[in-house]
Amino acid sequence: MAIRVLLVDDQPLLRTGFRMILEAEGDLAVVGEAGDGLQAIDQVRALQPDVVLMDIRMPRMDGVEATRQITGPGRDGPAKVLVLTTFDLDEYVVEALRAGASGFLLKDAPANELVQAIRVVAAGEAMLAPSITRRLLDKYADHLPSGEEAVPDALHTLTDREVEVLKLVARGLSNAEIAADLFVSETTVKTHVGHVLTKLGLRDRVQAAVYAYESGLVRPGAQ
């Protein structure tokens, strides 16, 4: 079945361009468009898309708040949010990731990257490398805990190995790199990552990386 995509951007010409790119792919279907966050929320309820291509800065309601309402606690729908931004390192992107976005993409990314990102997000993965998440979080370290705060109770539900895996995810390692570091198979790493996401109530690796920073488990700039 085709991946159902909702386009959200306040510029009609951009939406038209994205539609042309996506509809040229046999496995992608644009099911609707929205010009601001409020419309996006209504369209998600009505159309049940798999992926929402979400602009950040829009009138009435921005993409961060719309993302929060679409993917936040108590939202059991299938929609995953892929944020579009004009700027490589934008504080709004960090907020969007915290709000529940599965990743971000620059608006001037090549068409093949856009298509691949949507496929990856639809499959339940994060479309950006954890190293990019780390770079964003390092840049906005002032917004994160100092590390002197108490460790969240949820972290105590993880095994020692799962904590190790979470730290490595947050520090930018791929499954293959984590497997090599811990001398285990990639399948084992995937299992550990799955357990971490389930126990902490997270959607994907991006949220896991954000959680690791926000909880103080990983320090901005730490190696």
Set out the fold topology.
Elements (H helix, E strand, L loop, with lengths): L2 E6 L3 H12 L4 E7 L2 H11 L3 E5 L7 H9 L8 E6 L5 H9 L4 E3 L4 H12 L7 H10 L20 H11 L4 H8 L3 H15 L4 H10 L9
Parallel strand pairs: 1-2, 1-3, 3-4, 4-5
Return Rg in Å.
Answer: 17 Å
Which superfamily, in CATH terms, is the homologous superfamily of the largest domain?
Response regulator
Number of helices: 10
What class would the helix/strand composition place it in? Answer: alpha/beta
Look at the structure and give the CATH class of the largest domain: Alpha Beta
Secondary-structure element sequence? EHEHEHEHEHHHHHH
What is the count of β-strands?
5
Total domain units = 2
Q: How far apart lie the N and C ends?
A: 42 Å
- In CATH terms, what is the fold-level topology of the largest domain? Rossmann fold
* Main sheet properties: 5 strands, parallel
Beta fraction = 5-15%
Overall geometry: globular
Which architecture name of the largest domain does CATH use?
A: 3-Layer(aba) Sandwich
The low-pLDDT segments are none
Mean pLDDT across every amino acid position:
83
Query: What portion of residues is helical?
Result: 40-55%
Biggest sheet: strand arrangement: 2-1-3-4-5
